């Protein structure tokens, strides 16, 4: 037993407090110091990083200007800026409205609004995605909350897939991105809704309860309404905006770096073109409110292939697989994501053959 110090605490506990207050000192018992992991503590954040990048751009403005003066870089910059300028307003508005619904609309509302019969709850939950003007980043935790509130998993998963793809913001962005092809809006809505319902019914038929690890309580529940709103907005803007930038950069690189003949070879093959853009949607992980502008820039491909890109992206991509793994568990994601990918590709091809 450790001896008490004059302040009333045992010596062992006093030593632990001293070690906690002086993380910059070498740890005893062979443990390495913890300060090397975060040498600047909490003082370096995204604002500081952005300021550093701006300073570097100012210092090296000469080399940067000469670099972007080349024709290829000008083309790259044009594609990147055009995608960002068209997509950012939809992204910001959608994230803000999604945060309003997620924070101020009680979660119990969804449970009361759905039919009690699971087979009927699936299409109703899929159609309810229309009222969530946000990206897939917000749909995953909401679907987890629905399951925790007692909603049948099939209906919650149908909502998870439909909400990012058929809400008004996404459909309006699609209409703006494809002004000469209004059938793309109808095709995206029909195909996405069909995939959501098929996956919900498949879960009713084949799914097992032990595949889902019930989600934990969201950390936003402990905040006030105003703080939860701004926390949700900041989170979705940072994450969805970052993936949008990566997607715009990838679209620009595809238009500049990939030889035109390669793209044309893929585009001329109906099967390869669909598979290529479906896999590209998984890898790019673009927010659903901005992916239509990236798809529109891939003009070498058919409308059906680009429809597959728009249907697959909001339902199966790298960030969604990661989020689903964190919320529902690896056993769920390992089965749900590949099945959704196959169903989404097949439905997109079928809808494209009829409407496009």
Characterize the structure shown.
It is a single chain. The chain is mainly α and 356 residues long. The chain is 72% helix and 0% strand. It contains 17 helices and no strands. The longest helix has 34 residues, at 71-104. The N and C termini lie far apart (79 Å). Residues 1-40 have low confidence and may be disordered.
Low-confidence blocks of residues: 1-40
Q: Residue-averaged pLDDT, rounded?
A: 78
Structural class: mainly alpha
Amount of beta strand: under 5%
Instruction: Tally the helices.
Output: 17
List keywords for this structure.
0% strand, globular, mainly alpha, disordered N terminus, 17 helices, 356 residues
Can I get a quick summary?
72% of the residues lie in helices and 0% in strands.
SSE arrangement:
Elements: H1 11-21, H2 46-59, H3 61-68, H4 71-104, H5 108-113, H6 118-128, H7 136-148, H8 153-166, H9 168-177, H10 183-206, H11 225-257, H12 260-268, H13 270-284, H14 291-297, H15 303-312, H16 318-328, H17 330-355
């Amino acid at each position: 037993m450790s001896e008490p110090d004059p302040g009333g605490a045992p010596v062992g506990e006093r030593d632990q407090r001293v070690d906690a207050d002086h993380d910059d000192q070498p740890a005893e018992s062979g443990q390495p110091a913890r300060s090397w992991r975060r040498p600047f503590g909490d003082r370096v954040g995204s604002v500081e990083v952005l300021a550093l990048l701006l300073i570097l751009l100012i210092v090296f403005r000469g080399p940067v200007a000469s670099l972007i003066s080349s024709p290829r870089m000008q083309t790259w910059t044009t594609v990147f800026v055009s995608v960002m300028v068209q997509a950012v307003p939809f992204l910001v508005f959608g994230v803000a409205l999604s945060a309003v619904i997620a924070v101020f609309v009680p979660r119990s509302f969804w449970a009361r609004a759905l039919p009690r019969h699971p087979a009927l709850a699936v299409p109703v939950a899929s159609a309810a995605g229309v009222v969530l003007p946000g990206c897939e980043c917000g749909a995953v935790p909401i679907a987890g909350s629905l399951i925790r509130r007692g909603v049948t998993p099939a209906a919650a998963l149908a909502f998870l897939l439909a909400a990012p793809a058929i809400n008004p913001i996404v459909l309006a962005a699609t209409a703006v991105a494809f002004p000469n092809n209004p059938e793309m809006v109808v095709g995206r809505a029909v195909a996405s809704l069909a995939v959501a319902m098929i996956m919900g019914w498949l879960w009713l038929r084949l799914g097992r309860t032990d595949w889902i690890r019930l989600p934990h309580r969201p950390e936003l529940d402990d905040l006030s309404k105003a703080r939860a709103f701004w926390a949700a907005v900041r989170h979705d803007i940072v994450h969805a905006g970052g993936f949008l930038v990566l997607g715009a950069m990838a679209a620009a690189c595809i238009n500049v770096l990939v030889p035109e003949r390669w793209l044309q070879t893929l585009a001329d093959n109906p099967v390869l073109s669909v598979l290529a853009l479906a896999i590209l949607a998984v890898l790019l992980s673009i927010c659903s409110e901005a992916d239509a502008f990236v798809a529109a820039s891939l003009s070498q491909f058919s409308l059906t292939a680009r429809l597959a890109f728009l249907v697959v992206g909001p339902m199966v991509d790298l960030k969604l697989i990661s989020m689903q793994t964190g919320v529902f568990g690896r056993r769920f994601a390992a089965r749900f994501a590949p099945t959704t990918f196959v169903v989404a590709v097949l439905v997109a091809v079928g809808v494209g053959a009829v409407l496009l």
